[in-house]
């Protein structure tokens, strides 16, 4: 494993055996326009000056393409494997259906709040796109679930707390013995608050950002890989893009396998592999490679 195949994952993934991967994490192409020629200003705001469109000529063609890929993904997934798929909000209902047609069970829609989204273009009279969805699905009941508390999934300090809320708590838990009780409740909430379905993180910035327009940050990828897999497991991504799934897997002591049809992106992934190996001289796993 630890290989990215420089070819399409569609219509078959002949390199992969049945039930050979432990988890799926992927960001497929979207059927929509994408930002092009993004200008970054000094205040770190990005201004979009042009757009380009995906290669699919119709929604039907796009959905049929993903259905074939997901059926192949079901074939290579082990029983109990979890999967995560990024999607646009206007396609989530269609993708939910296709995921289940492929044989998986949709379990949850996760919301990623982007704290630095592309600004809205006022002439289009639309809100800024500050939210992206992530569909959690599984092949049967998930075999792995490594709980993460709420405060590890998003910054709970951003939650709005009003003066009235604070006064209500003070009145309810007035007195030294009650204060101790309140502190105990707060500690329990932070420790056992459940794994949340909301994450807050900026889009890729600074040194992590590459030429890939929809690159996913490692801080977004890594928690889900740690929740739904164990060290040594194989993480599968049929649409590697900039290789964030692969790098997140390596940093989490997991293995990976995937596909990327674009040779330019494969060159980018190779550079990220080289950077990873240079920064982690003690790494003793299988060397990550691009296979053509």
UniProtKB/TrEMBL annotation:
Family that this chain belongs to: Belongs to the N(4)/N(6)-methyltransferase family.
SUPFAM superfamilies: S-adenosyl-L-methionine-dependent methyltransferases
InterPro entries: DNA_methylase_N4/N6 (IPR002941), DNA_methylase_N6_adenine_CS (IPR002052), RM_Methyltransferase (IPR001091), SAM-dependent_MTases_sf (IPR029063)
Keywords from the named record: Methyltransferase, Transferase
The protein's name: Adenine-specific methyltransferase
Transmembrane segments: none
Name of a matching Pfam family: N6_N4_Mtase
Enzyme Commission number(s): 2.1.1.72
Lineage, broadest ranks: unclassified sequences, metagenomes, ecological metagenomes
Domain DNA methylase N-4/N-6: 21-271
Gene3D superfamilies noted in UniProt: Vaccinia Virus protein VP39
Organism: hydrothermal vent metagenome
GO molecular function, one term: site-specific DNA-methyltransferase (adenine-specific) activity
GO CC annotations, alphabetized: cytoplasm
């Amino acid at each position: 494993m630890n290989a990215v195949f420089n070819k399409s994952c569609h219509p078959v993934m002949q390199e992969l055996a049945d039930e050979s991967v432990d988890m799926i994490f992927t960001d497929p192409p979207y059927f929509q326009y994408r930002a092009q020629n993004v200008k970054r200003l000094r205040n770190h705001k990005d201004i979009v000056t042009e757009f380009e469109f995906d290669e699919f000529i119709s929604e039907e063609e796009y959905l049929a393409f993903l259905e074939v890929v997901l059926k192949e993904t079901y074939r290579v997934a082990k029983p109990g494997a979890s999967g995560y798929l990024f999607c646009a909000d206007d396609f989530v209902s269609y993708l939910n259906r296709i995921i289940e047609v492929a044989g998986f069970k949709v379990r949850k829609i996760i919301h990623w709040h982007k704290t630095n989204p592309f600004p809205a273009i006022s002439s289009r009279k639309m809100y800024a796109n500050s939210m992206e969805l992530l569909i959690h699905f599984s092949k049967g009941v998930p075999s792995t679930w490594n709980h993460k508390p709420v405060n590890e999934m998003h910054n709970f300090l951003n939650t709005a707390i009003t003066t009235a809320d604070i006064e209500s708590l003070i009145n309810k838990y007035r007195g030294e013995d009650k204060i101790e009780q309140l502190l105990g409740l707060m500690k329990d909430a932070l420790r056992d608050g459940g794994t949340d379905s909301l994450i807050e993180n900026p889009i890729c910035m600074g040194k992590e950002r590459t030429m890939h327009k929809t690159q996913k940050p490692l801080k977004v990828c890594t928690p889900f890989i740690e929740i739904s897999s164990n060290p040594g497991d194989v993480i599968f991504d049929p649409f590697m893009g900039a290789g964030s799934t692969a790098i997140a897997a390596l940093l989490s002591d997991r293995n990976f396998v995937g596909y990327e049809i674009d040779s330019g992106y494969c060159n980018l992934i190779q550079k990220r592999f080289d950077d990873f190996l240079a920064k982690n001289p003690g790494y003793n796993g299988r060397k990550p490679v691009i296979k053509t």
